[in-house]
Amino acid sequence: MKVLMNRFSSSKQPVALSRSGAIALATVVGAAATAAWVAVRARRAERHNPPAGEFIDIDGVDLHFVARGEGPPVVLIHGNTVTHADFIASGLMDRLARNHRVIAFDRPGFGHSSRPRDRLWTPAAQADLLIAALERLGIERPVVVGHSMGTMVAVAMALDHPESVRRLVLIGGYFYPSLRVDALLTAPVALPVLGDVMRYTVTALSSRLMLRKMAQAMFAPRELPDNFFPIVSREMMLRPVQLRANAEDAAFMVPAAHAMSKRYGELVLPVTLIAGEDDVVVDPQAQSVRLHDELPQSELFLVPGVGHMAHYAALDRVVNAIDTPVQAVSLDHFTSMTEDDLTLGAEPEMGGR
Questions:
Q1: What is the mean pLDDT of residues 82-93?
Q2: Which of 58, 71, 105, 204 has its CA 20 to 30 A from that of 96?
Q3: Percent of the chain with pLDDT strictly greater than 70
Q4: Is the Cβ–Cβ distance between 281 and 308 less than 8 Å?
């Protein structure tokens, strides 16, 4: 009986091992197939969305930018998830190009810009890169416009290179440390090796499923514009290199805001803050309103019925902020106002702070 039981047990063991082996093999094969599919989609996205502008090599980075128009310079710095094309979809680039030389960069790892792994791409590091690019291009003291994560890069440019920035226009900005669920969720994607595997497998698939809802949340309570995905390519946003850039930037947001918030008193240039009152991505009260209270030379516009993508709904307000002469923003008189509607083409009424 004992011999029979031993034989029975031993006969089952190879079956159990073969099942676990089959599962492991299927997992590996599935992951490899997914990774290959993701790589093919990424290459196809880049073929179908070729660079719209020029490249400049700055310290080993192939930095892609689009330039239009003539006149006083304006630099546009996009937020996470999107590329420079966000400013084209919103209409901001075309509007500004009527009277300005407009330069919109793809930040490192976004769009067609590379993102070497030989440094930490903090907002300060990205600011240094863009300043170096502007110097190479002969662009002097531009108005710098940042949206979302791009506001952190814009502020870092003004803090670390104050002589190189004329004024700041900050839209839907993040300036003070706070709990960021997105940073916690995407942190593993920023890690070497593990993150690389995730970006070609599980994260690639989950991002594909979530992207539209994420975009809708950015525009809420307004509808997602019909031209958003046709212009800001969905497939370009889903490439592994851009998923890594998103994850790394999200991971740097809180520590960078903590460090930079101690230096806001150093800002002496004019600052315009624009935010949607109904922004569910970045709390306007905890961020834009708080920075406005800290900077006596700032003006603040809270736009009702608008979310995180305020540059779409309040396009004229952004353009007015850029076109207002610096001399008109005195260092002892500023305005904080809320618009009752989105008819923002007329000059705003100026009131006491």
A1: 97
A2: 58
A3: 82
A4: yes
* pLDDT value, residue 170: 98
Residue-wise pLDDT for 169-205, tens only, equals 999 999 999 987 666 666 777 777 777 777 778 788 8
pLDDT at 75 over 90: yes
Distance CA 175, CA 291 (A): 7
CA dist 264 and 293 (Å) reads: 11
Burial of 158 (0-12, 13-18, 19+ CB in 10 A): buried
- What is the C-alpha separation between 187 and 185, in angstroms, rounded? 6
Strand partners, 303: 276
Whose structure tokens read 């094309």?
85
Return the amino acid letter for 322.
I
Length of the chain: 353
Amino acid at 283: D
Cβ neighbours for 162, distance < 8 A, ≥ 6 positions apart = 266, 268, 269
220 compared with 186, residue with greater pLDDT? 220
Residue-wise burial string across 208-245, b where 16 or more C-beta atoms lie within 10 A, e elsewhere: eeebeeebeebbbebebbeebbebbbebbbbbbbbbbb
Give pLDDT, residue 349: 33
Phi, psi of 248 (to 5 degrees): -65, -45
pTM for this predicted structure: 0.85
Task: Assess whether the previous peptide bond of 221 is cis (omega < 30° from 0).
Answer: yes
* CA-CA-CA-CA torsion sign (174, 175, 178, 179): positive
Half-sphere exposure at residue 89, Cβ-oriented, CA atoms within 13 angstroms: 19
Task: Give the other-Cβ count within 10 Å of 76's Cβ.
Answer: 28
> Residue 81: left (phi > 0), alpha (psi -120 to 50), or beta?
left
pLDDT above 70 (res 338): no
What is d(CA 93, CA 322) in angstroms, rounded to the nearest whole number? 12
